[in-house]
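Minimal example, chain plus 6-O-phosphoryl inosine monophosphate.
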Amino acid sequence: MPVTVIVGTQWGDEGKGKITDLLACDMDIVVRYQGGNNAGHTVVIGDKSFKLHLIPSGIFYENVLCVIGNGVVVDPSVLLEEIDSLKESGYSCNGLKISSQAHLIFPYHKDLDAAQEQKHEAGRIGTTCRGIGPCYIDKYSRRGIRVSDIYNEKVFVEKLEWNIAEKSFLLNQFYGMEVEYDIDLLKEQYLGYAEAIRKYVIEDSSYLVNDAVSAKKKVLMEGAQGMMLDVDHGTYPYVTSSNPISGGACTGAGIAPNAISEILGVVKAYVTRVGDGPFPTEIKGGIGELLREKGHEYGATTGRPRRCGWFDGVVMRHASKINGLTGLVVTKLDVLSSFDIIKICTSYQYDGKEIKNFPSDIYKLDKCIPIYEELAGWKEDISKIKNYKELPLNARKYLDRLSALAEAPISMVSVGAERTQIIKL
Ligand code: GDP
Ligand code: IMO
Ligand code: MG
């Protein structure tokens, strides 16, 4: 089976963009299957750094098709900006394909996202305010506008009128905002986008992907966000509105589970989280700030400082089971160089008892205290190492412990942001 899935195993920003780019050179197709421009995937090639929000991270290879699948929510203005900026850097984007079944983000989605965050202070999620949640709400309430709709003016206008009436009511009457949408202007704008993206749109991207699978071509699925932001299996309600887990690749790209042969979990050597919500191993101040500075832990999408903490083995075990990980890619190991002691959380203490399973109830999670094991650190600069055996012994012991907690083998170790800073096992 030729399909590999890349998933984030923590709260996003594990380095999925770098790993997707790295593997993409041997692929025929790279597919984004969920999320939208809440994602920020960094690819560093030489001294150039690219931040991709919607376009799959295989776009730097001319011969690789890059598919935005049916499960993605697309803000066309962001997409066009991203295409332009890639073209300016010399990447043609000729291999880009957009599923006509993907849903479109409109300005009212972004306004609703912001309004919900402002009005519901106590229940604030700390979203990226890109309209992701409200767009998925429309998808599931069956009022959404898909890419295909902007090529059918009558249908498009009917749907747009309904949505504008509904959202204006909500925003003005419930959220107390003062918004007014000019339907003609929005119509012209989106019909303009329709023309601008027409050459990339395909009717049903699942056929493209499944034909490739039948022809034994190589397909890579690029997850966005991460396990703990999954709407079903993460720290609900402090999650995103899609399923980043490996199972999400089946619905978001239209492939069968038995087409998947490899599921790679991208694992940051410590843990970060942007936005609100529980984070048991968070370190406030001191070492947390040191990790943020050494790891340049600032959001690739919003620039917000990422909260940092020690590696969480309970989260890892949860991610390993739900995703069915066949291998791990450990990233940012270089950031841990220079610590005397490195801590790993192996279980939680709840109500006086030790627990190893991640609690699905965040109120229970709030009362969990991490139980740590301490490992000796290493001082050497590891950022130029290419061979696993050359890593300091303590770094290898650390990796062994991560692999044991995940019950999965390590496939690669990343020791720097640049494309070539990788150790393959
Ligand atoms: P993604 O959303 O999972 O693709 O991750 P982001 O791009 O949001 O965040 C990962 C950050 O770490 C980016 O700035 C990457 O360039 C950087 N990065 C990736 N791998 C490594 C690594 O092994 N070492 C270091 N120091 N930085 C890395
Ligand atoms: P990548 O793909 C990290 C977080 C937001 C917020 C929550 C809900 O780069 O790993 P949303 O805008 O999705 O409704 O916000 O999810 N979040 C991410 N955190 N990396 C991401 O993507 C994220 N996408 C969303 O900060 O806590
Ligand atoms: Mg990111």
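The chain has a mean pLDDT of 97. The domain at 268-424 is CATH 3.90.170.10 (Adenylosuccinate Synthetase; Chain A, domain 3).
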